[in-house]
Amino acid sequence: MDSGTGSVEGVNEVVGRCAEWLRTDGWSIDRHAVDGPSGPFGTLAVAEQSGGAPGTTVLIGHTDTVFPDGTAAARPLKLDGDRILGPGVCDMKGGLVSGILAVEALRATGTAFGRVIFVLNPDEEVGSPASRPFIKERAADADVVFVLEAARENGAVVTARKGITNARMEFAGRAAHSGVEPQKGRSAVLEAAHATIAVHALNGRWDGTTFNVGVSAGGTRVNVVPEHATLTIEIRSTDEASLKAGEEELVQLAGRSVVPDVTTTLELSREHNPMERSEGIAALFARARTLAGHLGLALEEAATGGASDANTTAAMGVPTLDGLGPVGGDDHSPAEWIQRSSVVPRTALLAALIGSVGATPE
């Protein structure tokens, strides 16, 4: 099914299919209409059930993909040896399946488990602007959060992710005829060029922190000294202190100019806080590795520069593990896949983790 973030009908079809499956396995489900800055998203669903034991687990999976309508027809699900291919199969419809099947397995085997809240998020691929309040509300009282993005290609789960701040610099100069009176002009494009060099020179100042001018625009005609220019900038960092320092450096940069009389305005927007490997996350990974060993799996951990909903809950101080879906790769590309033989063991590991919440170490 097509379920690009902007495809409300497609996302709702995926949510409806998941809701139907969840209801047959004892979940209660609430659906919420949510809106983004440019219109409605598909519905957000929150499913819940309890297996009678103490403890609360939040599962997070997203129903949206990056692919436009028509992709599923052009590139339908197919099996290729040990790989399952299709748009969104890795990011992250495979994780949705694992989340449902893990709790189904606990029920089928008579294994006690605590309260489980499953958030199905329709806007993760654009940063979860509408879903974040729902996620934070449910995670506030949770013992743990498991995010069902795919495991890394080597099977590792994710224990750290970079935070992201987006910035927009706007430069205001003075227009003039570039041939007749260029001395009267003040080039906003030239100031933006100096700023671009200065921003990229910040790379390497803080370990694990990167700066990128992703979009540069300015000017109107070749014979006019440009009066306006803009830069869009992304900062990514492994830790809050460095991300904050990077933001402050951009503020300082915006306050000084190279081209006389050109002024700069800056807008900063924090998209994701960093997911730092806290003591709680380290302990949760140690538990996962032990359980994996009982299942005959060797489990590793990984840090990544990409962000997910795990950033939100980890920044709240809730022990969070990500990458608990099937093993997969080539996200957002025509080659996107999950490993067929990983689905059962990874779902078993997720089930074991859910069952361990609130239980004694034994």
Q: Please report the number of helical segments.
A: 9
Low-confidence stretches: none
Helix and strand run = HEEEEHEEHEHEEEEHEEEHEHEHEEEH
Classify the beta-strand content into a percent band. 25-35%
Q: Round the Cα radius of gyration to an integer and report it.
A: 24 Å
Task: Categorize the overall geometry.
Answer: elongated
Number of strands: 19
Task: Give the biggest sheet.
Answer: 5 strands, mixed
Brief descriptors of the model:
alpha+beta; four-stranded antiparallel beta sheet
Structure description:
- With 362 residues, this protein is of the alpha+beta class.
- Helices cover 31% and strands 30% of the residues.
- It has 9 helices and 19 strands.
- The chain has helices at residues 8-24, 71-74, 89-108, 132-139, 188-200, 240-254, 279-294, 309-315, 343-356, and strands at residues 28-32, 35-36, 39-40, 44-62, 78-80, 83-85, 113-121, 144-147, 157-161, 163-172, 176-177, 209-218, 224-225, 228-237, 263-272, 301-304, 320-321, 328-329, 337-339.
- Strands 1, 4, 7, 8 and 17 form a 5-stranded mixed sheet that branches.
- Helix 3 (89-108) crosses helix 9.
- The longest helix has 20 residues, at 89-108.
- The relative contact order is 0.19.
- The model has no long low-confidence stretch (mean pLDDT 96).
